[in-house]
Amino acid sequence: MTEKPEELQERLTREIATELQAELDHPLTEADWARIKEAVKERLRAELARRAAEAAKPKETEEYFVRFSFNVRAQHFVLAVGVLLLIFTGLPIKFHESAWAKYFFHVISLELSRLLHRVGASLLIGVGIWHMLYLLTAEGRREFRELLPRPKDLFDFLQNIKYLLGLSRERPKFGRFSYIEKFDYWAVYWGMVIMIGSGLLLWFHNLALGLFPKYVLDIAREAHSDEALLATLAIVIWHWYNAHFNPSVFPMSTTIFTGKISKKRMIEEHPLEYEQLMASSSPSPSEGEESRGEERAEAEQS
């Protein structure tokens, strides 16, 4: 916070008085205080002039690129709400003998917890169907191709390990999606297959028992429980750290909410995509300006 002029004057007076007292071998006299007063005036005048000059400078607008379309952001929002509901209502069931789980069911009844769990499951199923339909669009097919694992991902992983261990000064250069983001994406695919498949068997257990032996439901229960814990740990430890708790974006990245990424982050995190954009299009759009670059990116994403 910028100091007020009177606060600045008081601080400068203390500093100059301390400096002068250190040079003298006697208490400060009236003449000394007069010198201090003049020195404070000069420094105060210089500091206020510097602040005025800085305030008069035109502020540079940070440049942004469109990274995620509204469709993608909406899918992520529904997925996040559904998964959080499943975690908050599912873990107390898995650890129902613990004290905290008993307190949870004391505050939120078992009936309400089951209802919320099924709401979360419905959101998960719904967004899964939504995403499959999204993959039929031009944008969806393009994004899917970018998310396919490639040999470069393995080399990027090894290079990143070397960089983190101090064995190399060069970080791996990522394109539109790094191997970290690809892992996030495909982990959701695997998790949804296990969770939705086993969850439907448990949800409609009477129908399932008429079609399958009981041991199939026993396997489904164990798979559902263990995969849920694994998914929770992956989200909290892997995804939340890389997306929000990483020191470069802490306390959180807003890209998945706004759909935009700054030019600085684009160059640092996706240099190959940035180079490709610069080679094939006009300069990136700036914040608060409707440029052709942003219009074209929005059109491609929608």
TrEMBL record:
Residues 289-302 have a biased composition (Basic and acidic residues). The keyword Transmembrane applies. It is a multi-pass membrane protein. It is found in: Cell membrane. The chain crosses the membrane at residues 77-95, 115-136, 183-204. Residues 67-245 form the Cytochrome b561 bacterial/Ni-hydrogenase domain. One of its GO terms (cellular component) is plasma membrane. Keywords: Cell membrane, Membrane, Transmembrane, Transmembrane helix. The keyword Electron transport does not apply. Pfam families: Ni_hydr_CYTB. One of its GO terms (biological process) is formate oxidation. Residues 277-302 are annotated as: Disordered. InterPro entries: Cyt_b561_bac/Ni-Hgenase (IPR011577), Di-haem_cyt_TM (IPR016174), FDH_cytochrome_b556_subunit (IPR051817). PANTHER family: FORMATE DEHYDROGENASE GAMMA SUBUNIT, FORMATE DEHYDROGENASE, NITRATE-INDUCIBLE, CYTOCHROME B556 FDN SUBUNIT. This is Hypothetical conserved protein.
